[in-house]
Specification:
By secondary structure, the chain is mostly beta strands. The protein has a single domain, classed as Tachylectin-2, Chain A, CATH 2.115.10. It has helices at residues 210-214, 293-317; strands at residues 8-12, 18-23, 28-32, 39-44, 50-56, 65-68, 74-78, 89-94, 100-106, 114-119, 125-129, 136-141, 151-159, 182-185, 191-195, 199-204, 219-222, 229-234, 240-244, 250-254. A hairpin with a 3-residue loop joins strand 15 and strand 16 (199-204).
């Protein structure tokens, strides 16, 4: 097993309640879960200094994660529901200029708190819930998202995580290492990362099948001791990024993390082509009974001697 390098500090973040993070390799994009009536996405340089703010004219309830598609579109996961009081949750699709579309979705089995979102290569969103008891649940829309009505979700996978001894998190006991608080996709769509307050879990993705990937076995990467780690992202080069709530906390990086969970290439076997009809066939091998040739010679000799004796007697009678 190849162990990842230890996380290193990249830069400090001046956001009190950072809950979602993504990166295009040149800039960081971050969102807070308390924007007081407006969706604001902070754009930061690699030194974590805010260079501009994308302001979307929408009033979110509790934004908990942030994802980016290859065309630069941002998806804010307005899915937080600590009190299990929301009849619907929302996904906000935001362009770099701030134009926004809001899509409401509904769980098929009651209310859930969710802090993790990934968007697959086809543009389908997957929401991963934060379950204090049992496994985290993975949902996707049953059809195309719409701005005029709520679209039902369907459960497509569940994620069971074990307790670890990695330090970090705001809770006491074992929940810190089991609650899913963020998610990210690599730019090439080959690895998904889920994070808890203490660890990251990397899942290889084959053929773009997110549900199948999250049902498989991940590679665990311990994260630094963060007070309330809820954000995770990938740089395009596969570097894993993590961040925590709390002013002055840093974005941390694990170099080359995505390579630890690249999907394996299935082994191929080469079958020799059948011989053409006009090609000479190999001579059949003698059966195992002919391998006892001394016995065969002995029997042949007895038969020959018997035949000679009978022949001589016949000539004498004649």
């Amino acid at each position: 097993m190849i162990l990842p390098p230890p996380p290193v500090d990249v830069c400090p973040v001046a956001m009190q309640e950072l809950s979602g993070l993504t990166s295009d390799g040149k800039q960081f994009f971050a969102v807070s879960d308390s924007d007081n009536g407006t969706l604001r996405i902070q754009v930061m340089g690699r030194d974590c200094v805010v260079t501009r703010t994308i302001t979307a004219p929408v009033d979110p309830y509790d934004v908990e994660d942030l994802a980016m598609t290859p065309d630069g579109t941002l998806w804010a996961s307005d899915t937080g529901d600590n009190n299990k009081s929301r009849s619907t949750v929302a996904l906000h699709k935001v362009t770099p200029s701030g134009a926004v579309e809001r899509f409401r979705v509904t769980y098929p089995d009651g209310k859930h708190d969710a802090e993790a979102l990934v968007i697959d290569k086809s543009g389908t969103p997957f929401i991963i819930t934060k379950e204090p008891l049992g496994s985290a649940l993975v949902y996707r829309p049953t059809g195309p998202l719409r701005t005029d009505i709520s679209v039902p979700l369907e459960q497509v996978a569940r994620v069971s995580l074990s307790t670890t001894d990695t330090p970090g998190g705001p809770l006491e006991g074992t929940l810190d290492s089991r609650l899913v608080t963020g998610a990210a996709f690599t730019a090439d769509g080959t690895v998904i990362a889920l994070r808890t307050y203490t660890d990251a879990y990397l899942y290889p993705v084959s053929d773009g099948d997110v549900a199948k990937a999250l049902s498989g076995d991940p590679v665990r990467v311990p994260l630094p001791d963060e007070p309330q780690g809820e954000a995770i992202a990938f740089d395009p080069n596969g570097t894993l990024l993590s961040a925590s709530e709390g002013t002055g906390t840093s974005i941390r990086a694990v170099q080359g993390a995505a390579a630890l969970a690249q999907p394996s290439v299935p082994a191929t076997t080469t079958t020799p082509p059948p011989a053409a009809a006009d090609q000479p066939q190999a001579a059949p091998q003698p059966s195992s009974s002919w391998q006892n040739w001394p016995l065969a010679l002995t029997l042949g000799g007895i038969i020959l001697v018997t035949a000679l004796v009978i022949g001589l007697r016949f000539r004498r009678r004649a």
